[in-house]
Amino acid sequence: MSHPPTDDWFGRRTYRWQDWALPDLLRAKQAAGTTVSLVVPARNEAATVGAVVSRLREALMETIELVDEVVVIDSDSTDDTFAVAEEAGAVVHRAADVRPDLGTVAGKGEAMWKSVFVTTGDLLVFIDADLIDWDTHFVPGLLGPLLADPAVTLVKGFYERPLLDSDGTGSVLEGGRVTELVARPLIALLFPELAGVVQPLAGEWAVRRSHFASLTVPTGYAVELAALVDTVVALGLDAVAQVDLGRRSHRHQPLRDLGAMATQIVAAAERRAGRAVGDEVVLRQFTPGAAAETRHVPVWERPPAASQLQAAAPR
After folding, report:
1. 179 — phi, psi (to 5°)?
2. For the chain, first and last CA: distance in Å?
3. CB of 184 closer than 8 Å to CB of 191
4. How far apart are CA 228 and CA 204, in angstroms?
5. Are the C-beta atoms of residues 125 and 17 closer than 8 Å to each other?
6. In sequence order, what DSSP letters do the residues of 57-123 get, joined into one string?
């Protein structure tokens, strides 16, 4: 990838969620015979996952049948995430129990990769489990380009992102620290074609199932950037669209945890730029007045799920 960003793509492939009415999307879905799986990867999100699942089920399965299934993949939670999500109406799988023959690791990308084995939809919509300030229009907004244009393969959401205080309030649009400090500089240096993507790390995105199953997937937090880069390499920039979803808030992680997230994103970008990267990075972090902490950050990637689906098929 070595071409400059194109304003032409940015204009043609950027939408607002209001561009599609629910009845129109439903008609397009039915006419094409398309099915939709809503996937919520979750780890220790008992406080928020129930509301995410119940609101989406009510709006998009019970009121209008735009979504065919809501599946939560629980990534080694130690709280009540599984029970809360199940009570809210989701089909819930523990990541470790999905294809145990393939092993398991804790991680967002791992949960999303495992979802291919337990979902049925032609289109996969990913929604984070820790949303606080959001609305159900996120899902139809992401589905719009996929249902309207067969050339579109992956859709990224973007939104205003306030940095909330500990009491859940706040209005300063300083959310997305890893995006601004890590992902966007990496894109400027290594993948300038993607400079027009507003939020490359957005956890709300949609993809055609067959395509996602063809991708190599980082097991941690780099899955969104990796999928974006790999899609453009394989299919070109016009296979990607983005949709303005309005406003979104979620629980923010401590700064040192963001360091591990950033490490995974840098590792995925380095791989895609042609540099050899191992399966683990040793990260040293320092806090004034405390002993240095050494983290072993996993950065390995799963092979395309399609290859494992074929391996599991009866002969």
Report:
1. -60, -50
2. 39
3. no
4. 13
5. no
6. HIIIIISSTT-SEEEEEE-S-SSSHHHHHHHTT-EEEEGGGSSGGG----SHHHHHHHHTTT---SE
The helix (H) or strand (E) run that includes residue 15 is strand 14-16
Beta carbons of 65 and 26 less than 8 angstroms apart: yes
- Helix 223-235 and helix 108-115, axial crossing angle in degrees, nearest 10: 50
| Rounded Cα distance, 204 and 41, in Å | 11
Backbone angles phi, psi at 216, to 5 degrees: -75, 135
Tokens 């070109």 belong to residue: 236
Q: CB burial class (10 A; 0-12, 13-18, 19+) of residue 274?
A: exposed
Closest by CA to 186, choosing from 109, 260, 259, 265, is 265
Position 119: which residue type?
T
The answer to whether the beta carbons of residues 287 and 256 sit under 8 Å apart is: yes
Domains in the chain, ordered, with CATH?
Answer: 7-312 (3.90.550.10)
pLDDT tens, residue by residue, 260-315: 999 999 999 999 999 999 999 999 999 888 888 999 999 999 999 999 986 554 43
Question: What is the H or E stretch that residue 244 is in?
Answer: strand 240-247
Question: Phi/psi of residue 245, each to 5°?
Answer: -100, 0
Give 193-224 pLDDT, tens digit per residue.
999 999 999 999 999 999 999 999 999 999 99
- Tokens representing 214 are 């063809």
The answer to whether the CB of 117 falls within 8 A of the CB of 305 is yes
